[in-house]
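Re: the multi-chain job from yesterday

Posting the exact lines I submitted so nobody has to dig through the queue logs.
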Amino acid sequence: MGERFLVQGNQAVGWGALDADCEGFFGYPITPQNEIIEWFAREFPKRGKAFLQSASETGAINMLHGAAATGVRVMTSTSGPGWSLMQEGMANLCNAELPCVIVDVQRGWNTTRHAQTDYTSVTQGGGFGGYKTIVLAPASVQEIYELVQLAFYLADKYLTPVLVVSDAILGQMMEAVELKRLDFGPAPEKDWAIRGKASHPDGNRRASSIAKGMLPTAQYPNLLSFWRAYNDKVRQMEENEVRYEVHHLDDAQLVLVAFGYVARVSQEALRRTRAKGLRVGLIRPVTLWPFPSQVIRGKAAQGAKFLVVEDSLGQMIADVRLAVEGRAEVHLVSSLDRHLPVEEGAIYPEKVVEKIEELF
Amino acid sequence: MAKGEVEINDDFCRGCGYCEIFCSQGCIEMTHKLSPLGLPIPAVVHPEKCTGCGICAWMCPHLAIEVYKYVGATASAD
Amino acid sequence: MERKWFAGTPKLWVRVPVPIPFCTGCNHGTAGKLICEVIDEMGIEGKAILVVGVGCYTVISMLVNIDSVMVAHGRPCDAASGMKRILGEEAVIITLQGDGDALAIGTEATVHAAARGEKITTIMLNNGNYGTTGGQLGPTTIMGQVTTTSPQGRNESHGYPIPAGELIGSLKGVAYSARGAFTSPVNYQRTKRYLKAAIQKQMDNVGYSFVEILSACPSNWHLSARDSIKFIEEKIIPEFPLGELKNVDSIA
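And the result, structure tokens for all chains:
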């Protein structure tokens, strides 16, 4: 067993990035993830890695763009309002097909505490152009540490930004983490990396552009040639990168669907209701995109009901409704069911248990 | 006796007239001839005055001018 | 008589069989040539990287035979900072931007890169308007200048133009700031020297360097090419004087 120590969720992002050989962090402070930028400010310069605080999140995402173009692994992190400022940058990174990792530690709209209100924005993409990025949703500090490493691997594999989405509760909590560097095999060659003409074996220049397809190049002589290739990439990500976890799914008549901190709450509700003999199950998406529609569709076909538990007014529920294809009832426990009507309020197991019992 | 030679690419020229304004010897003049783009093009009307200074090429924004300097004279006259 | 090529299309210019897409008399083409000549003469073809924003000059990134990156409008200085922090002295990073790109939407990026003393070089092509989009008011449009969003001529309601070279030069992290123009062969050569000096500051690791180049825009100024040169000489240079505005060997 590897070394285990008590780590804060936000700081686990840094340890994961380190074990993924991340070379640069470019970011801006925002609650509730300041521990992340501060971790990188302490740990990166002394290891000879790049750390730079920008003057806004728009600055950070564009610094990330330039750094990603050099072919090294780089990342940023932010929360909802900062994520919004990065939308043009996301669309550009996806068009330029540059790998990088972005962490969003969600906060509740314009509060500074937890919520899951960025779901639609991170999965649908808030910028222009209709791009798609893989979105990973950890539910523990260990998982934050591991999914950050996975994110770098997937970013390189598909030449795309990859998101890791947590929230203020996961970010602030402290849990025991076993440090283990995940091995995904050798990193791919990056012939496209912009490092100066002398760095390329064939001596020819390389160009990176946010207007791929618009100005003709040898690789993409016209617009549709790029759009077609991009579409193929999205299909591949959809087919190959779905990740989720299930609990007591086989005999479940009611299936909870939850991610992040709410999945931990739902697991406790599951334990309590199972103890009472209720056939409840849980699907925890680990990728919010691509969404685990297939497993949900399967249970819908078996006649199960669904209870989506999320700390928003209902965003993931739309993907669950799409997945069941009209065959199943889909219910919701939302932010309106928080235990207190304030920022600090959260979704607690009692409320989920109450709703489960209502539905049986 | 010309010390240099100016070649103007009519296809690239956009008739801005900088070569005429900035030529240090007054070799170039705009004409009423139109280029394939439909713009008035210059001509080297006094090639004998050309010193090959290169100024017309520096000032041309459209890469329509190449300037050559003559390298000495050939030994025999033909 | 044997002849030797002396001036014209630079060695690093990517030759294409069609006329390059600049309006009659636009100084962007001149700037593009200048960049090719300077990079060649300084021997940095293998390590130079051109980072462009969005404007008529964006196409120059495809016409200079070195590595290039095209990024979002206003953001070359951010992207260049990110690249330089990774590549260090392995690369010479030059941003090519317009006046709006560098000093309107890009103000944060440009001012902060300058303040941080990033070892990058910015070329700001200043033609006093947003050219690509049809000639709207920009941060360097001079008073009285007519644009499509100041049809009455720039007045107090639009505010006052920003002196880019002086503003950037006032920051401690800036090792070099200069303003050039292409209004005469002498100015062409001076501007070339400014660009070489600016790039040398980067290569000597001194600090941020900035070259503003007053650029004729006959189309959007609705003037002939020769009248555009006169407009720069008579109206713009008095507002934005030419010359080296800051030149220090150490920013400490």
